[in-house]
Amino acid sequence: MSLSDNLLAILACPRCKGELRYPEDEASLICDACRLSYPVRDGIPVMLVDEAKRL
Fold it and tell me: Is a pLDDT exceeding 90 seen at residue 25?
């Protein structure tokens, strides 16, 4: 499932406030600075540090 470009433009990592990338082959948003992966469930990004997985 794809996220809209408008939504991706305003989302930031909740931990460092850095940019996120969205590889569409994965269901997650990636923060390269924090090395965290935030899940996207049913098209909704889960932007909670406690839910993120370490890369």
Answer: no
